[in-house]
Design brief:
alpha+beta; 16% helix; single chain; 34% strand
């Protein structure tokens, strides 16, 4: 399974997980928080990290030709480039046009906005945790252990609604 892991730290503590440095694709410090993102590359994953935006795509966009036509894209654009163009044109509403089996993670640096997006069927796992001082997201809950300040606990209300 493809592994990915992300962490946003609002306390701005130094955080260096036990990950091979060559697999780190975003590690930036901002005035309000620090962000870190890592994944293991393979043919199903790709990313863009520009001055204004970070986009990660894992999976397959099944209607890519329809999306290229919708954008009048005559270039040899990759799936990740198509996602970037759709986002720039329609903002978050772009997701209503995308079909397939995927996880898309967008960090819009200009808007200070993180979006974790799953396809409708949800074949690829996306786990997340949010507290006042951090957001953790990963393909596996086990990855959360890399954050030393993460303390797992059971939410009784969520458990009751599950049962």
């Amino acid at each position: 399974m493809q592994e990915f892991f992300g962490f946003i730290d609002y306390k701005k503590e130094d955080f260096y997980p036990n990950i091979n440095k060559k697999n780190i694709f975003v590690e930036e410090k901002f005035s309000k928080f620090n962000i870190f993102f890592s994944y293991r590359e393979n043919y199903l994953s790709n990313h863009i990290n520009s001055k204004n935006i970070f986009i990660f795509l894992l999976g397959n966009i099944s209607n890519i030709l329809d999306l290229k036509y919708l954008l009048n894209d005559e270039e040899d654009s990759t799936h990740i480039e198509i996602i970037e163009k759709l986002y720039k044109k329609w903002d978050i509403e772009f997701i209503n046009r995308v079909k397939g089996s995927f996880i898309i993670i967008i960090y819009d640096k200009d808007r200070d906005r993180l979006m974790l997006i799953k396809d409708r069927v949800g074949k690829i796992p996306l786990n997340y945790y949010q507290s006042d001082d951090k957001i953790i997201f990963a393909s596996s809950i086990k990855s959360f252990k890399m954050v030393s300040t993460f303390t797992p606990h059971i939410n009784p209300e969520a458990l009751a609604s599950y049962l």
